[in-house]
Amino acid sequence: MVRTVETNSEGKATGVSYINKDDGNEYKLSGKVVVLAASACSSARILLNSKSKQHPNGLGNSSDLVGKYLHDSTGGDMMAFLPQLTNRKIYNEDGVGGMHVYSPWWLDNKKLDFPRGYHIEVWGGMGAPTYGTGFNVNHFNKFFGLKAGGYGDVLRSDMKKYYGSTIGFSGRGESVAMKSNYCEIDPNKVDKYGVPVLRFNYKWTDYEIKQAKHMQDTFEEIIHNMGGQPLWNKPGIESNYGLTKPGEIIHEVGTTRMGKNPKESVVDQFERMHDVDNVFVVDAGPFVSQADKNPTWTIMALAWRASDHIVSEFKKQNF
Questions:
Q1: Residue 41 maps to which CATH number?
Q2: Longest dimension (CA), the chain
């Protein structure tokens, strides 16, 4: 596990210091180029821990932006019961509880009270060998005014009756990148290897909360038009309309943002650090914004471009 990036008297990277998890000892590796891809938060942790005379604020942190503009996707969920799908004919379709139908943004942006947008992921309830309803099928009797609970033949009958009668909706949206949302080194805590850990400062803005409300309003309208019954109460303002906590969607990005101006960014268009020209950060840290999609493929595309650039620079003997 990498602890720090090592530098020389000129401030250039010479390699890394790492902890061997098997013996707990610290070792060093040298190299002409250091490439960090530990994830947005972990790469920021390495950089912030890599203090030296030449980099007193952490490696590549003359802009004081390493760890800043941390942001994650928004999220909200709802499930519904569709009575018209009870006692339906069963086909050889077990396992499609993991289906993932993607619905892009289709609504009128002019009527929104928040920037950006979100998509909806639609999923089903045929996840054998589970009940195929999201939870215990006995609870579904209450939607018909029947006595809930049962076992043996009654339970088996209910399982067949309700199997596949649920639908789920998950909203995933874009949050607004804020400098006030950031990770930093905790001055009082270290991990079991003695390496200082991160602490997080993150708060959703009114924009994300309004987006979550819009998600729930949209879920409610879709479920009503389908003739469905929500499986739990619609979340209200007391829970930020069901908005997930920061970090729960695990699309964290933005801690080493990309840009042309070294005073306003950490890396350039090739994910090379402005302050240290032989250090690259090729994870989600360089993202200046995270859309409603998963960031993985974009991470890979940018890393590929950065790799091509590194090879080109080596051929030019610039390292």
A1: 3.50.50.60
A2: 78
233 and 290 together in one domain? no
Question: How many helical (H) and strand (E) elements, i.e. helices and strands, does the chain have?
Answer: 4, 12
Q: How deeply is 27 buried, as exposed, middle or buried, from its count of CB atoms within 10 A (0-12, 13-18, 19+)?
A: exposed
Rounded Cα distance, 7 and 208, in Å:
40
Q: Give yes or no for a contact between 150 and 63, defined as CB atoms under 8 angstroms apart.
A: no
Cα Rg, the chain, nearest whole Å: 25
Domain that holds residue 126: 85-176+205-242
Find, among 13, 44, 50, 35, the residue nearest to 285 by Cα: 44
**C-alpha to C-alpha distance for 305 and 268, rounded to whole angstroms:** 12
For residues 121 and 10, state if they share a domain: no
**Kind of pairing, strands 26-30 and 279-281?**
unpaired
Same domain, 59 and 149: no
- Predicted model pTM: 0.90
Say how many domains are in the chain: 2
Q: What is the pLDDT of residues 72-127, one digit of tens each?
A: 999 999 999 998 988 888 777 766 655 667 777 777 777 899 998 899 998 876 76
Is 198 in contact with 45 (CB distance < 8 Å)? yes
Q: Are 257 and 69 in contact (CB under 8 A)?
A: yes
Do 216 and 110 share a structural domain? yes
Distance of alpha carbon 130 from the chain centroid? 27
